[in-house]
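Hi L., both proteins are below.
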Amino acid sequence: MLFSWTAASIVSGAIMERARTGAFLIMAVLIGSVTWIIDAAWGWSPGGWMVQLMGYHDAYASGVIHAIAGGAALGALVVIGPRIGRFGPNGEIRTVPAHNIWMACLGLLIIYTGFWGFYAACNIPVFNIGTDGQPFFSATNIYLMPTTLSAITFNFLMALSGGMMAGFLPSRGQPYWTLSAGLAGIIAASAGNDYYHPIHALVVGGIGATIAFKGHHYVERRFKIDDAVGAVAVHGYAGFFGVVVAGFLLWGYPAAAPIEGGGAPWFGVTPDGFPAVNPLGNLIGAVIMFGVLGFAPFYVLARALKRFGLLRVPARAELAGLDTTTLEPSYPYFTRTYTEFELIERRDAAPLLAAGNGGHPSHEESMR
């Protein structure tokens, strides 16, 4: 249930400031009650067919939560389009500053804390993994393979550190992107953090954060995709990379405990008969998570919502701000009412809406 909420919240950040509340709730139901449930059954369970037949391994959900949510957010963003004024008539990128960057950074720090709690909760605290009738009790990961809380905590912190250091450099110390890169580092290393050496976690976290930062700005510049918080990059790109790289670094390790009566794995077994982690299985798994269960259904859903006029708020409501038109007022100093804005719109909005940016006014024109 927690992950159902988490998946929906990832999508919400990417499409905010222009999506209708009803459209988001439909998306939340799709990912939280359908696609996430399917991918968890397939790839985040010791009995999942992707695990037992392909050797798919994703211990702390780089793919089964982050890649699928990032892909879903991208599918919705392609259809919903950028915020008014986000790009100029010549394609120049205009930054929309956060209302309060330090509150945003505090939120990221809180996410770190919750993420570690999720790591701990993914372990089964006491489980008998003994063989030949000899009991042996241990903590295990989601796939019933032995691990320890101290080991995954160490790797969690190493991945976080690698991500933050990697994000600090290309962002030139921007606080939001430095902390977001830390989150991307954790996400990138999560697929294999039950097996990784701490140096693996550090390096994978750093590379994953760099991919997220560079990928976000490349896609924004090349395809004019307006991801308000960088969710597609931090969760989707880093998560996809994390699953793929785990297939190489953990090649030949046990993907999960074997299921009695199961079929022979497609891509190999360990000498003890366990399904073995392999690059091809994790690559196919990453494509399934990001593309098949993430991007594709949400692109189709967003197209359908747009067709019926249910996806995006009206331009006048977006310009006024959703706090004043759609949601209960969140800040007491936002005193302009929707009616007042309509009066202004009749006088001024028509020429603005005919301006650049595909019929939308620029940010400067909107503020003026």
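That was the first. Here is the second:
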Amino acid sequence: MDERELKLNSLARYAKSSPLYVLEEHGHCEVPAGCGGVVLRWRNPQAGVPLYVWLYRDGDGTMLLDGEPLSSSRPLVSFGEHVLAFGLTVADPRYTALMFAAFYPPPADAHVDVQSSAEQDVAVSVLSAADGTWRYTEEPDGREWMLPGFDDSGWPAMVAREERRPPPDPKRDIGKYSFERLLRLGAAGIGAADNAGTIWVRRAFEVAERSPRLRPVRQDGESQ
């Protein structure tokens, strides 16, 4: 068998790469391919980054990004300033009302393999914490509070609430996995001081622009 035949029958001829796009390989039982399958996706890195989102809340509620509901647990978020907003029903203010984590790149156990020759120098981490960046109110006005630029300095800060409210039926503890998963990711349980009932939570964050690609310099001092 000559060298030409070996090249024609090599699996390497199916390999794909791009200097402009990111190839993501999603392999997990949650993807449409099912257990043992993979889903491949090309993504334009100039459009933003896909945040990998995990959420625990005690009771009913909503989650919005820049005032719009999330359509995926891996939303593509553009570069710049953004706001996460949550509507929560607090059943008992002594316990955790909210835990949240969002990452890019994804954690090692997220079953995602990212292959790209494009620059991968963007890192985003948003974790729930009683650090003054997570603020809430009981009666927000309009939609401005869900958007960047809103002054929330007059809102109370969320406080630490590390203990989870016991489930009504320990045999059907559907929130246990999410709670423990978020703890492993580094998220902290937070609540709303002594407030019970419906609250609205705001957390601003930024996806920083990627660094410009460095261009090699010729000996004459001009960039190539």
